[in-house]
């Protein structure tokens, strides 16, 4: 929208400026980017800049994202350059806003008020995933404004800040989407922060490094564990405090118990809301919407008194300008000149003390509660309080034996639980506690200190075999680390320094901006240094970046201490189930009071017996029933080498509908075998391919051999070559040698040739390549060798070096399932002056000469195809998600059965002459010579449906092969427009190729947002994000457990997938059966007691003991041990406890049991021998009580038998030997009570002898009751099975239902920003 549409722009400008001067600095402003500070529209990276440069370390980080400047991802590059981009700037953390550009303009722009610049239109979110682009070009002084689309976008960002007051870093920006992305597309959490709270913005875009890969430094408010959603201040109120203690005394301490359960009520009752500045307590809501009440403490620093709170073991300092508590962080952007000074001098003692005050000691410590404290918390748990209440009540009723038994069970259970909790905390503390001696540079000298004394900014000397005590950035030298703790992958990872050897030894050291958070230079706490290669003065130096709980290891500990909430319906509805039981108890309470009072029973007895009904309806064994099935399932999984670190995920495994698989190492063998090389013949004007050489002895192409021998990241560890198995295979095929010399240079010896590494650029998924720069001693020349995906190498190579049949040759090998890598080279001029590594890498990887293809054979694991077939028969859809070539992925998918033979497939191809989503055309992969009928069809690129079929599109099965570049663009387009094309892609996509790790995670989250339960299986290396995001993530790793995924299988094939699904289904089915059984048990006993209350009788002490401890307790325990069915059924168990089938089944069973108990109650009273003689004081020994007790015993067994049929998820009852034995014993003893009791047993059991004929009558009624209940249960089972069979399996569709409304796609009024530069220009003209 143009500014000319407003007639009063000058007045608007002046008003906004005045308003902006008065508003709080925590609010948001609009301003335009300074002319000199521009965002590169071709980049997807992000950068954090720091305002305060005086101390060289401190300062609050601000981030700006340029990912959202364009609405169409560079689709509108033809737009006018004079259109300024409005940016919403958020100044939470600093009042400073400086630029070397026009200062007055910036001051004016800073004070624009956001809300006054809004007009009506259509608001769209911006996606933070864009198309991967070539490496960053040097644009430090590029004054061209970023291109934008015609409709402006609402952006949340931070002020433009300066990394150095004398040197403006301007070639890279970060834009953060204002609208918070919810995990997995879930709706708002049920908890809401209190009103009048200080809500902090939550950027959604991860910070990215200059190299284009995700940075390890995340924004403070984007941290799942430490991100803050809101803060509310409270202060001490004397009047409220006095009232609180008075009410506590009057209620006998019950108010304390109530407030112990409901902490927020206590906070609002005892404290008064106030501003954060005056608060004594802060109510902090994390972005996971869980709260913590933090006490404000004051620490005296050198110049002022700091107010500090500790939230989840991390310090937050009060900032007066922003009126909020902020977690201190060191900056991530430096000039290289600063780093040169750091490695020479380190921190001063004053600076060290200041940083120690802000960050604390480098320890991961958390308080372990004492045994009395844990015992008190266990005792004060609501259910334990309920058990104590029950024991006291039974004692008043003189049920001493029963009360003692329940108290003993509750006590033993609590002690065992307490012991387990404390042992787990102690083990966690032992795992987290690590202190070692380390050399640190301070005041220009190296001294040995304890690692607990490290602070961010310290320069340390890294030795070999060091377990890193914190997160660091490698400054000099090279380090090889074992990061299996993070990824589960034991392949060593080489870390490269930020400062190269040449830069350190140069007479005039170059000065350029540096991002210390690059992943290639990041060292993580808890990982092991297996080898160092020093560069600078014989030392390997690193800068401490994060300490304590801010480290990667600390985040792992926090994730264990504060696990994610489970939103599984079964858990939520189980509490509703208990609530329903409580309502039933209240109804029984009213009935019992009415009837007993009508019978003239004394008030004390009425109260005791009415209260006793509550203990009957909510049985003591209910907590065990909630977890016993999952516990036994985890034990069985451990026996088959499947380990779990998140038990709640197991029940989710029973609901899986889609399973995604990585390719290499998951469906195919981990190691690839070298197959051959297809080299090129270079001519003057053209190039063509040579023949395939399966033996390199027959090939005469020196440059190809040098490329294969040198272009890798291998190294020597313990006299063995270590690294990526693929690179090892290629290197071994050349018969070369890897040598490491005392000058720390690595040499490659191939025949008479010797290559010396000058620089290595590791493989990056986003770039799809790696490269090396080497010196060839035989001809004194330097080369840059590049290896990567054929598609990327083709783009980077000179056109005349690409054979005309390039794509045809690539198709031949990828279609057969081979892994194809392309290699290329260029000569390197060692004299050229390159400003930084980014520019060096870009130069080394452009204008290449294509050398040929390296063909690797990736064999299919024999288990893959049968397991995929098992999953398909169970109506579980399978998807391949890989970073490999799409044609290779298709071939492997067909081999393993993910794609059926003769399937109509389409793949997107990019038209290089266009730059939009519609630049992709869809090619039919059907071969006309073999599939002439299928080759006829074409795909409409606008709808992704068949466009030339006479039949309805839905009747013709077809599938899509989606590539990473297309996935990024269509996802970006979907978030902008809400186009249904993206949903069609998700529905039809079976193979996703050339997917980066971020793309994989996005795919998983989008499938979950639709409402699908999604599983992911990968090797844990490049799939960590997807494995963690999936409902069930399985990492195939030789380590028993890692943080890469909730589940880890040491059997490195996908046989673990159906096993896990079957155990999940069994766990879920058992949990449902136990809940139904426990519900029926409590209701049957409830009905029996209500009937007895009608004659002023009650069950005796031993009767309760026999029913609860002899019959029910063993059945509940052993029911959970039922193993899963051997066959994976097409049906999935219900995840809803409160559903028509479950509730309907319970209601009918209750009615049946009520009917037969009614028959027994009235029939026994009509017998000729019946009398109402009162034998004992409590009127227990009666004919009715005896009959109801005996009959109820059989009803429990009937219900246990009914709910033991778990087909198709559980094995039959007789296969569970312990359950079968317990059931047989209970049945036998119950029959003995009827037919073979001695007078002594009848007397102890408070039973009254009944005639033998009546006993046979009772057994006859039991048989009829058994038949009725079994008929009811099998009717419901048959109904569910039959209704499930009506659904058909569409292998070509991932889902068939309509996708739910996406809350990210706003359907409301649009908010359009005005171009402020035009507004300012109009103001100047006037």
Automatic annotation (TrEMBL):
Q: Composition bias, kind Polar residues: at what positions? A: 87-97
Q: Which Pfam families does this UniProt record tie to the protein?
A: Cation_ATPase, Cation_ATPase_N, E1-E2_ATPase, P5-ATPase
Its signal peptide is none
Spell out the reaction equation it catalyses.
Answer: ATP + H2O = ADP + phosphate + H(+)
Q: Which subcellular locations apply to this protein?
A: Membrane
Q: Which UniProt keywords apply?
A: ATP-binding, Magnesium, Membrane, Metal-binding, Nucleotide-binding, Phosphoprotein, Translocase, Transmembrane, Transmembrane helix
> Which residues are in the P-type ATPase A domain?
439-558
Keyword Magnesium attached: yes
Specify residue ranges for compositional bias: Low complexity.
Answer: 131-152
Regions crossing the membrane = 242-264, 374-393, 399-418, 574-594, 614-635, 1083-1103, 1109-1125, 1137-1160, 1180-1206, 1218-1236, 1256-1279
Q: Enzyme class, one word?
A: translocase
Which superkingdom?
Answer: Eukaryota
Q: Name one GO molecular function term.
A: ATP hydrolysis activity
Extract the InterPro entries matched here: ATPase_P-typ_cation-transptr_N, ATPase_P-typ_cyto_dom_N, ATPase_P-typ_P_site, ATPase_P-typ_TM_dom_sf, ATPase_P-typ_transduc_dom_A_sf, ATPase_P-type_domA, HAD-like_sf, HAD_sf
GO CC terms: membrane
Its membrane topology is listed as: Multi-pass membrane protein
Look up the EC number in the record and give it: 7.2.2.-
UniProt-listed Gene3D superfamilies: Calcium-transporting ATPase, cytoplasmic domain N, Calcium-transporting ATPase, cytoplasmic transduction domain A, HAD superfamily/HAD-like
Annotated family: Belongs to the cation transport ATPase (P-type) (TC 3.A.3) family. Type V subfamily.
PANTHER family named in the record: CATION-TRANSPORTING ATPASE, CATION-TRANSPORTING ATPASE-RELATED
State the protein's name: Cation-transporting ATPase
């Amino acid at each position: 929208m143009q500014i000319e549409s407003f007639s009063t722009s000058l007045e608007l400008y002046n008003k906004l400026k005045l308003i902006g001067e008065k508003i709080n600095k925590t609010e948001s402003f609009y301003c335009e980017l300074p002319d000199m500070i521009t965002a590169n529209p071709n980049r997807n990276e992000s950068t954090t800049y720091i305002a305060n440069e005086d101390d060289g370390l401190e300062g609050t980080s601000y981030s700006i994202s340029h990912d959202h400047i364009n609405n169409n991802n560079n689709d509108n590059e033809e737009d006018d350059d004079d259109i300024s981009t409005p940016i919403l700037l958020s100044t939470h953390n600093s009042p400073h806003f400086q630029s070397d550009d026009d200062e007055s303009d910036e001051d004016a722009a800073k004070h624009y008020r956001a809300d006054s610049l809004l007009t009506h239109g259509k608001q769209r979110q911006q996606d933070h995933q864009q198309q991967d682009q070539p490496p960053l070009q040097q644009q430090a002084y590029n004054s061209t404004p970023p291109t934008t689309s015609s409709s402006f976008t609402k952006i949340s960002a931070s002020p433009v800040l300066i990394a150095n007051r004398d040197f403006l870093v301007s070639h890279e920006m970060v834009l953060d989407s204002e609208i918070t992305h919810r995990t997995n597309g879930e709706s708002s959490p049920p908890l809401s922060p209190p009103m009048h709270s200080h809500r902090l913005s939550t950027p959604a875009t991860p910070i990215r490094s200059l190299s284009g890969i995700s940075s390890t430094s995340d924004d403070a408010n984007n941290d799942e564990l430490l991100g803050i959603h809101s803060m509310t201040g409270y202060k001490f109120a004397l009047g409220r405090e006095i009232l609180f203690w008075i009410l506590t005394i009057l209620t006998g301490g019950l108010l304390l118990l109530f407030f112990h359960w409901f902490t927020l009520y206590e906070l609002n009752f005892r404290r008064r809301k106030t501003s954060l500045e005056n608060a004594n307590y802060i109510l902090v809501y994390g972005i996971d919407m869980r709260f913590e009440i933090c006490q404000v403490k004051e620490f005296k620093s050198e110049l002022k008194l700091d107010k500090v709170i500790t939230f989840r073991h991390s310090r937050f300092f009060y900032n007066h300008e922003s009126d909020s508590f902020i977690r201190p962080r060191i900056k991530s952007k430096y000039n290289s000149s600063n780093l040169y000074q750091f490695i020479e001098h380190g921190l001063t003692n004053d600076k060290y003390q200041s940083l120690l005050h802000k960050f604390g000691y480098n320890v991961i410590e958390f308080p372990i509660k004492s045994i009395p404290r844990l015992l008190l918390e266990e005792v004060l748990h609501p259910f334990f309080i309920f058990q104590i209440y029950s024991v006291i009540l039974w004692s008043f009723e003189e049920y001493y034996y029963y009360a003692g038994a329940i108290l003993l069970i509750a006590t033993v259970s609590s002690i065992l639980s307490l012991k387990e909790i404390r042992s787990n905390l102690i083990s966690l503390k032992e795992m987290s506690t690590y202190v070692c001696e380390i050399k640190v540079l301070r005041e220009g000298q190296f001294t040995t200190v304890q690692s607990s004394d490290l602070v961010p900014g310290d320069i340390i000397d890294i030795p070999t075999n060091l377990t890193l005590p914190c997160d660091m950035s490698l400054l000099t030298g090279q380090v090889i680390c074992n990061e299996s703790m993070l990824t589960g992958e034991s392949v060593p990872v080489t870390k490269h320094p930020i400062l190269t050897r040449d830069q350190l030894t140069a007479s005039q050291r170059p000065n350029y901006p540096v991002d210390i958070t690059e992943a290639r230079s990041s060292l993580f706490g808890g990982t092991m240094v297996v080898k160092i290669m020093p560069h600078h003065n014989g030392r390997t130096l690193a800068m401490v970046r994060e300490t304590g709980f801010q480290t990667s290891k600390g985040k792992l500990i926090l994730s264990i201490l504060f696990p994610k909430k489970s939103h599984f319906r079964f858990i939520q509805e189980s509490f509703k189930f208990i609530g329903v039981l409580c309502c039933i108890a209240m109804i029984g309470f009213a009935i019992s009071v009415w009837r007993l009072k009508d019978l003239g029973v004394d008030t004390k007895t009425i109260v005791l017996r009415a209260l006793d009904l509550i203990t009957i309806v909510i049985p003591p064994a209910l907590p065990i029933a909630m977890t016993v099935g999952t516990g036994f399932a985890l034990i069985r999984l451990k026996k088959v080498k499947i380990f779990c670190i998140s038990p709640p995920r197991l029940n989710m495994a029973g609901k899986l509908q889609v399973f995604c698989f990585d390719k290499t190492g998951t469906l195919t063998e981990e190691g690839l075998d070298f197959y051959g090389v297809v080299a090129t013949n270079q001519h003057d004007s053209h190039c063509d391919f040579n023949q395939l050489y399966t033996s390199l002895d027959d090939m005469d192409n020196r440059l190809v051999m040098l490329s294969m021998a040198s272009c890798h990241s291998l190294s020597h560890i313990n006299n063995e070559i270590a690294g990526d198995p693929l690179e090892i295979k290629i290197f071994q095929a050349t018969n070369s040698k890897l040598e490491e010399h005392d000058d720390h240079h690595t040499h490659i010896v191939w025949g008479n040739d010797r290559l010396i590494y000058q620089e290595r650029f590791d493989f990056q998924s986003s770039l799809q390549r790696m490269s090396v720069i080497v010196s060839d001693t035989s001809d004194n020349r330097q080369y840059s060798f590049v290896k990567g995906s054929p598609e990327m190498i083709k783009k980077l190579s000179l056109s005349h070096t690409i054979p005309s049949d390039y794509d045809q040759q690539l198709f031949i090998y990828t279609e057969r399932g081979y892994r194809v890598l392309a290699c290329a080279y260029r000569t390197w001029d060692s004299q050229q002056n390159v400003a930084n590594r980014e520019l060096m890498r870009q130069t080394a990887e452009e204008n290449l000469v294509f050398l040929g293809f390296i063909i690797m054979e990736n064999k299919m694991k024999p288990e893959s195809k049968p397991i995929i077939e098992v999953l398909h028969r169970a109506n579980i859809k399978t998807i391949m998600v890989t970073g490999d070539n799409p044609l290779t992925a298709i071939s492997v998918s067909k081999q393993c059965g993910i794609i059926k033979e003769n399937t109509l497939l389409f793949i997107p191809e990019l038209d290089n002459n266009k730059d939009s989503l519609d630049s992709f055309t869809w090619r039919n992969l059907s071969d006309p010579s073999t599939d002439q009928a299928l080759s006829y069809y074409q795909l409409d690129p606008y709808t992704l449906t068949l466009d030339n079929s006479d039949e309805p599109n839905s009747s013709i099965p077809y599938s899509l092969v989606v590539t990473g570049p297309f996935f990024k663009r269509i996802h970006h387009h979907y978030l902008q427009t809400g186009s249904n094309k993206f949903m069609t892609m998700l529905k039809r996509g079976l193979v996703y190729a050339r997917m980066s790790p971020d793309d994989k995670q996005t795919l998983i989250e989008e499938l979950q947002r639709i409402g699908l339960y999604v599983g992911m299986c990968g090797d844990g290396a490049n799939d960590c994000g997807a494995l963690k995001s999936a409902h069930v993530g399985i990492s195939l790793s030789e380590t028993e457990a890692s943080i890469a995924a909730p589940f880890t299988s040491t059997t490195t094939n996908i046989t673990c997938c159906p096993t896990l699904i079957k155990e999940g289904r069994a766990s879920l089915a058992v949990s449902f059966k136990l809940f139904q059984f426990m519900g029926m048990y409590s209701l049957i006993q409830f009905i029996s007691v209500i009937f007895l209350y009608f004659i002023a009788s009650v069950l005796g002490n031993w009767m309760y003991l026999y029913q609860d401890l002899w019959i029910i307790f063993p059945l509940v325990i052993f029911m959970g041990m039922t193993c899963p069915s051997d066959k994976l059924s097409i049906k999935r168990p219900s995840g809803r406890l409160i559903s028509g089938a479950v509730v309907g089944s319970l209601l009918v069973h209750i009615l049946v049991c009520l009917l037969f108990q009614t028959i027994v109650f009235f029939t026994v009273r009509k017998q000729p021998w019946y009398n109402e003689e009162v034998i004992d004081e409590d009127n227990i020994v009666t004919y009715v009580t005896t009959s109801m007790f005996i009959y109820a015993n059989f009803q429990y067994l009937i219900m246990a038998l009914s709910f033991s049929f778990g087909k198709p998820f559980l094995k039959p009852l007789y296969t569970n030997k312990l359950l079968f034995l317990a059931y047989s014993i209970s049945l036998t003893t119950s029959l003995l009570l009827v037919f073979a009791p001695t007078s002594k047993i009848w007397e102890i059991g408070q039973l009254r002898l009944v005639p033998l004929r009546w006993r046979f009558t009772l057994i006859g009624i039991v048989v009829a009751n058994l038949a009725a209940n079994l008929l009811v249960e099998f009717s419901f089972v048959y109904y569910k099975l039959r209704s499930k069979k009506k659904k058909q399996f569409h292998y070509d569709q991932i889902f068939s239902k309509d996708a739910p409304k996406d809350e990210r796609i706003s359907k409301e009024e649009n908010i359009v920003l005005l171009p402020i530069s035009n507004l300012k220009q109009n103001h100047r003209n006037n």
